[in-house]
UniProtKB/TrEMBL annotation:
It comes from the Eukaryota. It comes from Crocuta crocuta (Spotted hyena). Residues 14-141 form the 3-oxo-5-alpha-steroid 4-dehydrogenase C-terminal domain. One of its GO terms (molecular function) is 3-oxo-5-alpha-steroid 4-dehydrogenase (NADP+) activity. Pfam families: Steroid_dh. The lineage of its organism: Eukaryota, Metazoa, Chordata, Craniata, Vertebrata. Its EC number is 1.3.1.22. Belongs to the steroid 5-alpha reductase family. The chain crosses the membrane at residues 15-33, 54-71, 114-133. One of its GO terms (cellular component) is endoplasmic reticulum membrane. This is 3-oxo-5alpha-steroid 4-dehydrogenase (NADP(+)).
């Protein structure tokens, strides 16, 4: 998300370089910590990839990713070229929640937490929920 979405978005408000840098550093560090744990310290049974927790977690992650991508698509196409100003997104999950893209991201991380069955994965899902809930409430206002 930190690399692809900014390249796809049209127009929008400029974001200060330090905000982009901090977001990139955070995503890099989180990715390192998650992958380091999974590759070096996690111990799973040989049949873990057939365990219901892993399978359901992967399905939840996939549903969240599809929701996130679809919601981002709706957001990117809100304004016509040259248009400015705020518009309320319509369609998809935006008919039910204010920040469908954030909801999809939380669902993704919950799926990852379940599939990894780790404190680290669950903690990141919980922190993501807390941060994005606050941002979603701000967007709603």
């Amino acid at each position: 998300r930190s690399l692809i979405f900014p390249l796809l978005i049209r127009g929008g408000k400029p974001v200060p370089l330090y905000v982009c840098t901090l977001a990139f550093m955070f995503c890099t560090y989180n990715g390192y910590l998650q992958s380091r744990y999974l590759s070096q310290y996690a111990v799973y049974a040989d049949d873990w990839v057939t365990d219901p927790r892993f399978l359901v977690g992967c399905c939840v992650w996939l549903v969240g990713m599809v929701l996130n991508i679809h919601s981002d698509h709706i957001l990117r196409n809100l304004r016509k070229p040259g248009e400015t100003g705020y518009k309320i997104p319509r369609g998809g999950l935006f008919e039910y929640v204010t920040a469908a893209n954030y909801f999809g991201e939380v669902v993704e991380w919950c799926g990852f937490g379940l599939a990894s069955w780790s404190v680290q994965g669950a903690a990141f899902a919980a922190f993501t929920f807390g941060i994005l809930l606050s941002r979603a409430q701000h967007h709603h206002q």
